[in-house]
Amino acid sequence: MSHRFGLLLFGVLFFSACQKKSELLTRQQLEHRSDSLTAIMFEVLQKQAKEDLDSRIAIEVKPKVDSILQHRMSPSVPPPSSIEPVDHPQHSRPTTILQSLVDTSHPSNE
Questions:
Q1: Model pLDDT for residues 30-88, shown as the tens digit of each residue
Q2: CA 34, 35, 37: angle at the middle one, nearest 5?
Q3: What is the value of pTM for the model shown?
Q4: Rounded CA gap, 8 and 14, in Å?
Q5: Which of 28, 76, 94, 110 could make an SS bond with 100 (beta carbons 3.0 to 4.6 A apart)?
Q6: Could you give the CA distance from residue 56 to residue 58 in angstroms, rounded to a whole number?
Q7: How many whole angstroms separate alpha carbon 52 and alpha carbon 1?
């Protein structure tokens, strides 16, 4: 990308330096030139970004798809619908020291 930009910039400067007469440009002419150069660079950047995306997708998506398929097809992991809920004990562990002193249902306080 930097080579293309450098070449484009060199070409513009070279051809503008080779002009025989030096005339001042109006504001509209300056804006037109800058817009046209910006449009050219934008198209170059878009093309390069699309090429980069295409090459990265081919590299990055395949391993992820393979991993997902392998995970879904492995028999060691049961599907979510076959997992049964676990029964929790009736008493829960106190979360603070004060609760353990006040809680009489806890086995350590009996």
A1: 899 899 999 999 999 999 999 999 999 888 888 888 888 888 887 665 566 666 666 65
A2: 65
A3: 0.38
A4: 10
A5: 94
A6: 5
A7: 12
Q: For 1-23, write each residue's pLDDT tens digit.
A: 566 777 777 777 776 655 566 67
Q: Domains of the chain: which residue ranges?
A: 28-75
Tell me which of 97 and 37 has the higher pLDDT. 37
In sequence order, what are the residues at sequence separation of 6 or more whose Cβ sits closer than 8 angstroms to the Cβ of residue 110?
Answer: 104
* Token pair listed for 103: 């809680």
Output the CA torsion sign for 13, 14, 16, 21. Answer: positive
Classify the C-alpha dihedral 31-23-15-9 as positive or negative: negative
Dist CA 64 CA 20 (whole Å): 60
Q: How far is CA 6 from the centre of its chain?
A: 29
